[in-house]
Amino acid sequence: LYRFGASVLGYDCHSGCERPYIDGADTSWPAVTREPRVYGFHATLKAPFRLAEGSTLSDLERAVEAFAADHPAVLGGMLAVRALGSFIALVPAAACTDINRLADECVRKFDRFRASMTQEDRARRLAGGLSPRQIEHLDRWGYPYVFEDFRFHMTLTGSLAAPEGDRALQFICGKFEQVPQAHVLRLDRVVIARQDRKSAPFIVIREALLGQSAIRPYAYSF
Hints:
The protein is α+β, with helices and mostly antiparallel strands. Helix content is 34%, strand content 18%.
């Protein structure tokens, strides 16, 4: 699944290196995937944030390790390529409450490490048009699409107009059908990805396996 997503984006956020685009991608593909390439192939559980004053990266890494050890992995079911508004993403074909619960806990657990958002960031978010509830989420959690407004997804393109979006959707669907071993989501780890400067690509700097607690062991039937 990761190899498929990274080849669609042309970037591997674990190595920090570019990679060849998926077979059949034409010369327009770098523009199609420019926006999500910065983040790498991933699913957001806690939106990007700057570290709060007094918090260190080591503090955050230890908290993520402890959190992951104490939470079981999640079997998310079948994946499907879908258009979400103007962009294309991989999403669970059916709603998965276990994924939503994990994301909710990440939002709450790691918020103590988040610096308050700047007025510039707030204005940028508000310009996108938010509901009253989403504005409340933005002001409390630094991100509008949490809890009831969260939707687990792995982004594959940027915002596309209808004709280009239709072509990209058909192309990605065809390619995904050729990788049946990637069709079932097994969420077995969480990672920290860091952006060293604005517009720089994100790079994974810490990976923590879910459900590895020696005190509270878990059994899986994946």
